[in-house]
Amino acid sequence: MPKSKGEKPDTLGAIERALGYSFRDRELLERALTHRSAAHEARVTGHNEPLEFLGDAVLNFLVADRIVRRRSDLDEGAMTRLRASMVNTHRLAKEALRMDLGRAVRLGKGEERSGGREKLSILADTTEALIGAIYLDGGIRPVRSLILRLFGPEIDHAGTRPAGNWDPKTRLQELVQARGIVLPEYRLVSETGPDHSRQFEVEVLVDGQVIGRGAGSAKKRAEQAAASEALRALKQS
Fold it and tell me: How far apart are CA 163 and CA 76, in angstroms?
């Protein structure tokens, strides 16, 4: 695995202490901290995007589970908003900064020069990758413990209209639900660029009609951009 610039020998140990979890397989931890740009430069296949994909699913499940168990007083819309206030780029990047992940993440030279260690998207994605790595290494129990430590108190004490700017996909889902329309469908239009710098274009369909398109360096960011365009279109209709 490629080493981060200036990485100290105990960096992995510091991350484990911040997570409250010790890995049996340290290679999983190293992979979770390896950005695609670093893997591309080192000509290796091990980077953190598959772990990010898994971590996103596990995170959403465990946050939803906590909400249903502790906040059954909320209606479905309020539950959706509460989950969105926990599972978003800014909230996850905040936890990454607290754990000093920027120091540990392994980047390619170009991403390093462009300030990748401070990019909220990279920090949030790395947090999700670490969640995925813990799940593979130790199963659901240690991940649940981490998620409850990070989000449990906020979930338990949040109001029925938690403060925050809900992400576009959540707002679009709520809008179409309120209008009695079938839920949005996201479709990948194109995927271009080299492996270390992919660009995705996504379109969103509501009731079978394309009402928004978006692009981004990750599929989920392209989906958020498409949802933003769809929201503007629906509000004008």
Answer: 17
Positive or negative: CA dihedral 219, 50, 94, 173: positive
In the block, tokens 């079978």 appear at: 208
- Stretch among 17-21, 112-116, 131-135 having the lowest mean pLDDT: 112-116
Does the active-site annotation cover 203? no
Distance of CA 79 to the CA centre of its chain: 18
Confidence bin at 225 (pLDDT 50/70/90): very high
Q: Which residues of 110-120 are buried (b: 16+ CB within 10 A; e: fewer)?
A: ebbeeebbebe
56 is catalytic: yes
- Of 52, 111, 125, 128, the active-site residue reads 128
Question: Which candidate in 30, 49, 52, 56 is catalytic?
Answer: 56
Q: Are strands 185-192 and 209-216 parallel, antiparallel or unpaired?
A: unpaired
Ramachandran angles phi, psi of 226, nearest 5°: -65, -40
What are 128-162's pLDDT values in tens digits? 999 999 999 999 999 999 999 999 988 888 764 44
What domains does the chain contain, in order, with CATH numbers? 11-157 (1.10.1520.10), 168-236 (3.30.160.20)
Location of structure tokens 């120091």: 103
191 beta partners: 200
